[in-house]
Amino acid sequence: MSRRWSVLAGAWAVYAAFGLLVSSTGALVPQIRDDLNLSDSVMGLVLGAWQLIYIGTAIPAGRVLDRFGIRRALLASMVIMLASGFGRAIAWDGWSLFASVALLGLGAPVISVGAPKVAASLFEGADRRLAVGIYSTAPVIGGALGLVLPANVVGPLVDDDWRLIIAVLTGFAAVALVIWVLVSGGLDGLLAPGAGPSLSEYRSIAALPVVRFVLFLSVLNFYFVHGVGQWVVAILDSAGWSPREAGLWAAFGTLGSLIASYVIPRMATSDRRPALMVGVMVAGAGSLFFLLSTQVLLLAPSLLVATIARSALVPLLIMVMMDHPDVGPERIAAATGLFFALAQIGGVTGPTLTGVLADASDGFRLPLLVHSGVALSIAFFIIVGYRRATA
Predict the structure, then answer these.
(1) How many Cα atoms sit within 13 Å of 211 on the Cβ side?
(2) What is the DSSP letter of 261?
(3) What confidence tens digit (pLDDT) does each residue in 266-324 have?
(4) Which residue, 216, 219, 232, is CA-closest to 291?
(5) Residue whose C-alpha is closest to residue 285's, from 277, 275, 295, 293
(6) Nearest alpha-carbon partner for 17 in 129, 157, 160, 179
(7) What is the C-alpha separation between 192 and 254, in angstroms, rounded?
(8) DSSP state of 289
(9) How far apart are CA 374 and CA 365, in angstroms?
(10) For residue 326, what is the DSSP state?
(11) d(CA 245, CA 249)
(12) Per-residue pLDDT reduced to its tens digit, 338-357
C-alpha cells in the first residue's frame, strides 16, 4: 500500500474513534437520563457540550496542526478524547457529565481539521475525491458502532450498566491511538510543520465570498445534523421501540451516511454539487416526519434518507472550499477550522433546542418539524446563492 494511503487509513481510524465516542452518549440517553434524574432540556445541554467548547477551539486547531505537525497533534487529541470517555463513565450528576462531554471539544477539532488536511495535501484530482469519500465514512462507521454496540453487544456483557458500557467503548477507541502511532512515523516529513496561519490570514480567508457562504450554510447544517443525530435513539425510544431495537434501527440508518459520505463526494463534480445538495436536503426534510413511525416500511426508508441528508452536506461544502482557487490545499486547514468553529454554533443549539422543545411539547413532533424547516431553508439558500458565491 502506498504510504499516503496508509496515512489516510490511520487518520480514518482516529476519526472513527471520534464518531464512536460521540454517538455512544446519544445511544445511552434514556439510561443516563433516568439514572442521573435529568430532564430532556438538561440532557440536550449535555449532548451539545462538546460542540460548545469546539466553537472556541476549532480555529486554534488549525494553527496547532500546522505548527506542531499532524502526527503529534492527532496523538494529543486522541489522549484528550479518551480522557473524556473515561470521565463520562464516572460522572455522578448532570454537571460532571457535562464537563466530561465538554472535554471532547478540546480534542475533536484537530481531528476534523486534520483529516481534510491529509486528503488535500497528499491527493489530487479523482484520488482526492476518493480520499474525501473514504475519510468521511470514518465518523459514520464509528457512529454506527456507537449506536449498536451499547445495547446489543457490550450491554449484555456488563448487565446494561451504562457506565461500564462507556468505559469499554472508550477502551475500543484507544485502539485507534495505537494504529495512528504505528502508521504515522515520519509523517511530518510528508506534511511538514509550519508557522500556521496568522489572524490576518484567517480574516483574509473569511472575507472570501465562497467561504462566507459555506460558513453560513454550515451553521444551519450542523443544527440539523446534531439536533436529529444525537437524539435519534431517544426519538425512536419515545415511539415505542425498545432500547435494543432503537439502537439497531439507528445503526441501520447509518447505511445512508455511508452512501452520503463515500458515494456522493465521488459523484460531486463541480457542476453537480448544487443540485446534489438541494436534493438531499429536500428529501431529508420530508423524511423526518416518519421517524416516529412504528411501521417498518415507513421507518426504514425514512432513517436512510434522513441520515443521507445529515451526512452529505459536510464533505460537499468542504470540497467547495478545497477546490476553489482562492482556498486550495495551502489554506484548507485554516478554512476548515473556520468552518467547524462556526458550524458548531448550530451543533450546540441543535441538540439543546431539541431537548427544550421536547420538554415543552411533551414529545419530539415539534422538534422534528423545526428541523425539517431548517433543512428546507438550506436548500433554498443553495438555490439562490450558490452560483454567485462560488463564481
Answers:
(1) 25
(2) I
(3) 777 778 889 989 998 999 999 998 998 888 888 999 988 988 888 888 888 988 888 88
(4) 232
(5) 277
(6) 179
(7) 35
(8) G
(9) 15
(10) T
(11) 6
(12) 888 888 899 999 999 999 99
Name the grid cell of 194. 509550519
Give the SS3 label for residue 364.
Answer: coil
Are 33 and 337 in contact by the 8 Å Cβ rule? The answer is no
Calpha distance 203→182 (Å, rounded): 37
Task: Give CA–CA dist 216/11, Å, rounded.
Answer: 27
| Residue keyed to cell 439507528 | 250
Residue type, 365: R
Q: What is the DSSP letter of 324?
A: S
Query: Helix, strand or coil for residue 356?
Result: helix
The interaxial angle of helices 328-361 and 209-229, nearest 10 deg, is: 40
* Residue type for position 265: P
Cell 434522513 sits on residue? 306
Cβ atoms 291, 234 nearer than 8 A: no
Report, in this order, helix, strand and coil percent for the chain, each rounded to 5.
Answer: 85, 0, 15
Q: Which residue has the cell 467547495?
A: 320
Least confident of 5-19, 137-151, 259-273, 345-359: 259-273
Q: Which of 147, 374, 168, 322 lies closest to 241, judged by CA?
A: 147
- Report yes or no: 113 and 11 within 8 Å, Cβ to Cβ: no
Q: What is the CA radius of gyration of the chain?
A: 19
> Amino acid identity, residue 281?
M
CA terminus-to-terminus distance, the chain? 38
Query: Residue 126 is which amino acid?
Result: A
Question: Residue length, the chain?
Answer: 391
| Whether the Cβ atoms of residue 278 and residue 379 lie closer than 8 Å to each other | yes
How open is the CA angle 43-286-270, to the nearest 5 degrees?
A: 100
Nearest to 391 by CA among 242, 159, 249, 210: 210
Measure the CA angle with vertex 113, ends 367 and 174; round to 5°.
85
Q: Rounded to the nearest 10 degrees, how much is the dihedral formed by the CA atoms of 376, 379, 384, 390?
A: 150
Tell me, what amino acid is at 3?
R
Q: Which of 68, 55, 47, 173 is nearest to 114 (CA)?
A: 68
* pTM (global) more than 0.90: no
Please calculate the CA angle 227-251-377 and round it to the nearest 5 degrees: 30
